[in-house]
Amino acid sequence: MEPRQDRLRSEIAACSTWSAGWGGAARSVLAGLFLLGLVLAAGPAAADRSGHGHRSERGARAETAAGRSVRAVAAPNVRFEIYYDYLEQDATDTFSASGPSTLSIDSHDGHASRAALTGVLPIWGALGARAQLRSAYGHRQRSLDGLSRGNNEIFDSGATLELFVRDPERGALTVGGDYDRLSREGPIDAEDFGGHATAQIFFPDMGIGPVDWTFHFGFTHREVEGASGTADIDADRYLIRAQSGWYATENVQVLFGLRWDRAEEEFSSSEDLEGIFEARWFLPVPVVPIELRAGGSVGVSEYKRPPFRTDKRPVYGATVGLVFRFGAGESLIDTQRRYD
């Protein structure tokens, strides 16, 4: 589980009810993920894999071939992560469809830092649990009340609880809940309540290296406190991320994907579509292995507020981070498929 990579994204506070269209799409996504979970839990994989094999993975395959129980988590473990995020958005002007009014939005760049502490425990067989505490501080695209765009310094603290079914030879299905408290200087605070589901398929080495395919869906509702006026500015947010992670070596993974992020409130909405990239390098240091992470994103941010026409402006960013692991596998692929 990646720490919540809200990192510096469009934190739009606003409100919109869950329409029938969105609800139907969400139910279809969750139904597909549920079916994948049944496949993963149906039985152990007995097929032998080639390339990128190491001692612990060979042992896991031997246990599977012998008909023993699949273990979701090889051993209890903890990891501590720290990140720095940068976001840049270009300026844009959008015009009213009913008059000569103009909505101008300045360009801005934002900086933020965040940290997370994550623990993973086996429960029984292919079932495991994951818990995370996190905090972040820095600039966001929008203020908590959804009324002002630009640099806004916001403090965020939260937690996530997850249950997952995992077969290290096949893949994993995760469901979880999230809570975050956001605050800034002034009377306005906000609380986020959310749920998410993630499906992963672990492809073996077919000549070019193993690949992890990941599909993530999340929904968050934000309740804003202390805002003036009568408008309902609570927010609903939808997040979909699809990516593939190719293992160039046992300790190096390169990830590519797409991220779609939409937030809605009573009078406005925002939608971002971005391509994402990340590289991970695992250093098997004795006692406390370290993982280096670096990535970026580039895409289009679209802000809608009647009567103005939608604006579409480039948005791009970068992230660097360190992961300190207390309990890990012999390699990155072993750690991510059997410990994380």
Tell me roughly what share of residues is in helical segments.
10-25%
Question: Ranges with pLDDT <50 over ≥5 residues?
Answer: 1-68
Beta-strand content: over 45%
DSSP summary: helix tally? 3
> Per the principal axes of the C-alpha atoms, what is the gross shape?
globular
Strand order of the largest sheet: 1-4-5-6-7-8-9-10-11-12-13-14
Q: What is the tally of beta strands?
A: 14
CATH class: Mainly Beta
**Architecture (CATH level 2) name:** Beta Barrel
Q: Name the structural class.
A: mainly beta
Distance between the termini: 7 Å
The largest sheet, given as strand count, sense and whether it forms a barrel, is: 12 strands, antiparallel, barrel
Explain what you see.
It is a single chain. With 340 residues, the protein is mainly beta. It has a single domain (20-338), classed as monomeric porin ompg (Porin, Beta Barrel), CATH 2.40.160. The protein is built from three helices and 14 strands. The strands form two sheets. Strands 1-4-5-6-7-8-9-10-11-12-13-14 form a twelve-stranded antiparallel barrel. A hairpin with a 6-residue loop joins strand 12 (269-283) and strand 13. The protein is globular. Residues 1-68 have low confidence and may be disordered.
Short structural description:
The protein has 340 residues and is mainly beta. It is built from 3 helices and 14 strands.
